[in-house]
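Researcher: Quick one. two chains, 897 residues in total.
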Amino acid sequence: MKAFCRLFEQLDGSGGSIARVDALAGYFAAVPPADAAWALHALLGKQRKRLITGRRLREICLERTGMPAWLFDQCHAQVGDSAETIALLWRPAHPPESAAADRQGGETRPLHVWMEEVLPRLASLEGPAQAEAVGELWNGLEPLELLVGNKLLTGGFRVGVAQGLVLRALAKVSGLEESLLAHRLMGGFAPSAAAYRSLMAEGRGEEPALSRPYPFFLASPLDPAALAESAPGDWLLEWKWDGIRGQLIQRGGESFLWSRGEELLNPVFPDLVTLADGLPDGTVLDGEVIVWPQDAPVPSPFAALQRRLGRKAPGAAILRECPAAFVAYDLLESEGEDRRSWPLAQRRQWLEDLRNRSAPARLRLSPCLALTSWQQLDVLREQAREAGAEGLMLKRLNSPYLVGRRRGHWWKHKLAPMELDAVLLYAQAGSGRRANLFTDYSFGLWDGEGRLVTFAKAYSGLDNAEIDELDRWIRRHTTERFGPVRAVEPLQVFTLAFEGLQRSKRHRSGLAVRFPRILRWRRDRTPESADSLASALALLGEPGAAQR
Amino acid sequence: MKRTSHLPPDGLISLTPEGLHCAAAGVWIDPWRPVSRALITHAHADHARPGCGTYWAIGSAEGILRRRLGTGIDLRPVSYGQEWRLGDASVSFHSAGHVLGSAQIRLTAGGERWLISGDFKRDADPSCTPFEPVGADVLISEATFGLPIYRWAAGASVAEQIRRWWKGAPERTSILFCYAFGKAQRVLAELAALGDTDEVLLHGAVQTLMEPYRQAGVAMVPTRPVSELPRSASLAGRLVIAPPSAHRSAWMKRFRGPQTAFASGWMAVRGARRRRGYERGFVLSDHADWDGLVRTARESGAHQIYLTHGQSDVLARYLREVEGLGADPLEGGFETERSMEGEPGPEPE
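Model:
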């Protein structure tokens, strides 16, 4: 646990990526596999299991310190995180002086003992016995250990280190390729010494689990200059579908559907699992999961897919109303062989052959679009919305299927976002590094009767200086408080960008917005000049939108 | 509901647009605007402002005050503990332990004693005289760090952490950001107290404040302005002290791949450090921590306490409800604005 806390401290600083990789590699090389496995699990953000809630920890802290609840909550508002608030408030048997970083002794149990014994035991207790045990644990910890320990308990452990850096460190320690490590980590990593050893083992010898997906290859936003050197004929053009990325696997008579977030989606899309059952053994497809009724010319909007995503074991009605389709655009494995090194043209040919041979229902192929000159590119892109897509994909016909985001092979060329000018109505403080700063904003548009109606929330798009300035403005122009939310004078106008607009019965404005974010702060605009719900409906472009 | 309070209309001290005012003595204390007569608790810019007729301040603050407010100001130096008449009141300055020459100011008239704490801390600090507990009937205290999450370790142990951070990176330049007046000299004095004798390099803004401290006989490690070194000189393994405003400024260009840290009470909270992009935060403050604030309120013996700055409403509620003291946040121009650096509230200088 000591070594892991030290690693946390090193990663938590904003030092460069080289220093972080060094710190990670140093840690992995030094600790036993059982600890390395748990550390890796936590660093990859897989430690999501909540053993004890932050609320319960707060309760225990209050009970054992006798501190008034309001005072704890004031502290929490400043800190933005229960685990850290308690770490700062807890007064151990040792005064803080002796708890300085140089103190020897203290916590000596290794990380895997913490994860496998200490913390689960606390979670298994109840009531006063639990409070007693948690208090006792806290008493023996230094502040940093208290913070890390609480974060592991609440399942809120996060440290700003990208998976890529972790892979680089593992590659450094093991001498293996990053892409091999990424592949081995796909489909879940069980935190055990054995799993860590086989992850880091040499060679490709062992048989991978049937369910294991390949790491996804990702496209980058189009850099038009990158196309200038090549002919349109070097590229495969497709629509960029507005669903979720998925990998469909058929191996040994079993089917698996994985999301890009490595979530197994089998229970959510039984219709697609059935589809995969019809594929030849040893087939892995990359494609888009989307709602697309059999005879519809274009897929349903994203909102229809969202209705599906929330449900495990969907009922017959929803399956009928929102039938899922798998729009395949790549083939990663056929006849049980990894085909990722083949050029795209060859993989695509196999995919088409597969479609023609077996043609399971609802397996759609993403059609190839024709392009003869680069001048046509943006004309084609403008037709995406009509096709029910959100833009274009450009993939080099000779590209292999790589791991992660590697520029130059695959580009995405999305439709320009929709824009509306909206008025800031409410603000709420963020958490973590945005604790105590108003960074979560709600915006309104004018209705037909001269009232502002909340229409979108946005959290991103302003730079730090703007956030600070707006925060000060919000504090001075608060008109009402509703718990953590502040209503402000409706004076500030912002241009919001978003990817899509849907009718919605659940929203007061009657509209649901997709990926809203702040494009710019319009200090030049008065609130009266902001957009109305009617102008939003016009963007919707729905026939007869105005009458409804 | 936020409870705020005004000073009683018939009290010894009142709040005017210029700041805290004692009519009996005909003076203001740390006025915000130019007035005829000003008592100054200490030389930080939010407490000592230019344009007043006559200033009274602790003698060891004189050098810094003249540098900041003009060499020609009418400044009457006073000593700690000395009591003298001003109009119908008697006045005394008492050590506040905040920075060199910082004071609490007590005014007595009509049998009532009012104490204005100014900024203060109770922790040992080799760069200034220690805090002196002072009794009063009414106390006006700061509450900058008025939350129990703010608890300070001894300055010496923080200095040891700083030293280890610096010496642990012999190939890199270590840049420690901290307020130029007070904190910087405290760090230099704490390093000297640890027995370190290595030269520390200073940003110009820190350099200008060194002479008054050296004149006052504060023992610090040797220093040199970084600007005196030739451009070609290697800065590997050197410690440089600079004000926070230099972070990410053009001044930083001269250092290649330095490690950076910020020394401030705000660094107690992880988010505050991450927001500002420092690699390390050292929790070192020249203000009282929570325990220091509560203890000072309790020990003053005051029947009424008014709180200014920072978490005044939280501390007041705690003193009322838990300590059973008469305490209220003081309405007025004390609430410090968030600085441009995104702090929960700026630690003055």
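Chain B touches chain A through 34 residues (CB under 8 Å).
Researcher: Thanks, that's what I needed.
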